[in-house]
Specification:
This is Voltage-gated sodium channel. Pfam families: Ion_trans (PF00520). GO terms for molecular function: voltage-gated sodium channel activity. Keywords: Coiled coil, Ion channel, Ion transport, Membrane, Transmembrane, Transmembrane helix, Transport. This protein folds into 3 domains: 137 residues, no CATH class; 118 residues, Four Helix Bundle (Hemerythrin (Met), subunit A) (Up-down Bundle); 127 residues, Helix Hairpins (Orthogonal Bundle), CATH 1.10.287.70. The chain is built from 17 helices and 2 strands. It is an all-alpha fold and 457 residues long. It has a two-stranded antiparallel sheet with strand order 1-2. A hairpin with a 5-residue loop joins strand 1 and strand 2. It is elongated. The N and C termini lie close together (6 Å). Helix 5 runs antiparallel to helix 6. The chain is 60% helix and 2% strand.
């Protein structure tokens, strides 16, 4: 049951689960065999779990904004709940995702084969495609806003605000504006970010990145401090290198060589790479990324600064590379990975569980449910997990559809009928086996056949 609630985004502890089973199980279960002779409930069947989730949705709705709208509190728009359910349907979600990807591909193709804005070859096609995509995105935005009842809850989501801004820019461009405001077309490239809202797996990545910002920021501060320290030292140590336009190197045979220190840009080596604090910072960033720093930056100083004494230059660059590339960079990666582990859903608190139990008792007392006959069968745990998985797949970026208890009940009834037919067929097989054993010869008892009673949760 704990895993079932977690799949539905409603976490409960093991102790809370035991309370719900013990106190709510007898009220919602269809299988009376789940209650022993002492009156203790040992599990909850799929029908009971669906009813319990239905009661939980009424007591603590996953999307409370469905009860309200721009008309006021507890005044939803006509068919608002149904509009929201269809908007969150996987088919609609992947259709919108396909449209976003198609728009992104069209933008890529446009910049590849028709990049010159002053002499467009297929201007009519690009304008037509942009108009179609803008209209589709506008319809999708209005659909989403209607599901929120055009109320304040829509603006409480950052993804909704981003959708409104990007789609609003597209609508403005449809009016054929010109001048500086026409540069808003550049924002079309950011439409692909809307995928992070529509596809749940991508949304988890973005939310994990946002959740890791505080920890990563601390790691970046430490990294920045080390950069500052090494940049200050680099300016002090290396700024005057080759200041006269040349520097001298000594090889192992004590032969001296005079080498030009003028860079392709006309500066001396020390001035170009370490002339100021900001230049030293950029040079050290190049060192951290491994962008040919060993040959262009380090070796020049290694052979020409102190000739035969290479210890200072070697220690400077090796210590910097170890600290930045091997230590602090991995710390940042570790912080990111730590936040990618999905946290458990916000669980119900003990007082909320108590209130839920009282709510279920009150609701059941209003309309008692009929119980199954003692010989009837109910679903097993696999069916429960199947129903919960199909329910969880309908959740997209935090939007959870309503739990259809009647649909689950019909499936349970069909499963019970199938079990009865299976028992009848097994009985026929058993009769044939008994008849075969009645033939002349050694008589053996047929092996027992165990149907196995499904266990509830």
């Amino acid at each position: 049951m704990v895993s079932g609630f977690e799949q539905l985004g409603r976490g409960v502890t093991g102790k809370q689960s035991e309370r719900l089973i013990a106190e709510c199980g007898p009220l919602v279960n269809r299988n009376t065999k789940l209650v022993d002779e002492d009156g203790k409930c040992n599990g909850i069947d799929v029908y009971g779990l669906s009813k319990l989730m239905d009661y939980l949705e009424d007591y603590k709705p996953s999307e409370p904004f469905l009860r309200h709208s721009i008309l006021g509190q507890n005044k939803p728009l006509p068919f608002q709940r149904e509009v929201r359910r269809y908007y969150c349907h996987p088919i609609v979600v992947w259709t919108v995702a396909g449209i976003i990807i198609a728009n992104f591909i069209v933008n890529i193709v446009e910049k590849e084969i028709d990049a010159d804005r002053s002499h467009l070859k297929y201007a009519s096609f690009w304008d037509g495609a942009d108009t179609v995509f803008n209209v589709l995105f506008l319809v999708e935005l209005l659909w989403n806003m209607y599901g929120y009842g055009f109320g304040r809850a829509f603006w409480e989501s950052g993804w909704n605000v981003f959708d409104f801004f990007i789609t609003g820019v597209g609508v403005i461009l449809l009016a054929g504006v010109s001048g500086p405001i026409s540069q808003l077309k550049l924002l079309r490239a950011f439409r692909v970010f809307r995928l992070f809202k529509r596809i749940k797996s991508l949304n988890k990545i973005i939310m994990a990145l946002l959740a890791s910002v505080p920890g990563v920021a601390n790691a970046f501060v430490i990294l920045f401090i080390f950069f500052c320290i090494y940049a200050i030292l680099a300016v002090e140590l290396f700024r005057e290198f080759g200041i006269n336009g040349t520097y001298m190197t000594d090889d192992v045979d004590s032969l001296s060589h005079v080498v030009s220190s003028i860079t392709p840009r006309g500066y001396t080596h020390g001035i170009e790479y370490y002339g100021t604090y900001t230049r030293a910072m950029y040079t050290l960033f190049q060192v951290m990324t491994g962008d040919s720093w060993a040959e262009a930056i380090c070796r020049t100083l290694l052979f020409g600064l102190y000739q035969r004494s290479t210890l200072a230059v070697s220690f400077f660059y090796i210590s910097f590379a170890i600290l930045t590339q091997f230590v602090l960079s991995n710390v940042i990666v570790a912080v990111l990975l730590d936040n990618f582990v999905a946290p458990p859903p916000d669980g119900l608190k003990d007082p909320e569980v108590t209130e839920l139990i009282e709510y279920v008792k009150a609701e059941v007392a209003k309309a008692p449910r009929p119980q199954l006959a003692p010989g009837d069968r109910v679903q097993d745990e696999k069916m429960v997990e199947l129903e919960l998985s199909s329910y969880a797949r309908g959740a997209v970026a935090g939007a959870v559809p309503l739990f259809d208890a009647e649909l689950v009940t019909r499936r349970v009834d069909r499963m019970e009928q199938s079990m009865l037919r299976l028992e009848a067929k097994l009985g026929q097989v058993l009769d044939k086996m008994i008849k075969l054993q009645a033939l002349p010869g050694e008589r053996r008892e047929p092996p027992p056949i165990h149907l196995g009673k499904p266990q509830g949760r």
